[in-house]
Design a protein that fits this description.
191 residues
Length: 191
């Protein structure tokens, strides 16, 4: 069936091509010139669309890579903050350990102040760490949104340029076609 249909369409194409060539010859128009104009216009449009799809694909890939990089950097920063916070907590625990020596020495008031200092150090370390992590996440969100916005703006620009280029190619093709068929039109008017 496929072979039959291919043969049918090939036969129809050949018949239309022959009829087109015969009509053009009777009107005094070079059918090859018209076919060339149409083919060139179509090839230009296909090239523009191919470039558009390539630009969009590269843009999306770049956007994705930027987002992945931002996430990787943010995760690294968060681990650095956690490490820094843990170091501060360990230092606070060492301060709290000094309270044991104070208790053994009978300095209850000093031990109380030392423990309060250690607790404040731990609270501050956790609070500072949490605030830094929130800032990192907020900046990551802004970075991702900016990357997506830039990606979308680029895609819109690519599409706009492609539409403009296609319009130009079609208008040029149409003008070339009109110019090529002017002789035929004059021959038809003289009949």
């Amino acid at each position: 069936i496929k072979t039959f249909l291919v043969n049918c369409f090939e036969g129809i194409k050949n018949a239309v091509d022959s009829a087109f060539s015969w009509i053009c010859s009777k009107l005094g128009v070079d059918s090859n010139q018209i076919k060339s104009i149409i083919t060139d216009t179509w090839n230009n449009i296909k090239s523009i669309i191919s470039t558009l799809l390539g630009d969009i694909s590269r843009n999306i890939n770049d956007c994705w890579n930027n987002i992945k990089s931002a996430i990787d950097n943010s995760v690294g920063q968060i681990f650095d903050v956690i490490k820094e916070t843990w170091e501060r907590i360990k230092a606070a625990l060492q301060v709290a350990g000094m309270a044991i020596n104070q208790l053994i020495a009978g300095d209850w008031e000093g031990a109380k102040k030392t423990i309060k200092t250690a607790i404040d150090m731990i609270k501050n370390a956790i609070s500072d760490g949490w605030n830094k992590i929130k800032e990192i996440i907020s900046n990551l969100g802004k970075t991702i949104l900016t990357a997506i916005k830039n990606c979308w703006d680029n895609i819109k620009s690519y599409i706009s340029q492609a539409i403009g280029n296609i319009k130009t190619r079609v208008v040029n093709g149409w003008n070339n076609l009109k110019s090529a068929t002017q002789t035929a039109w004059n021959n038809v008017k003289s009949i």
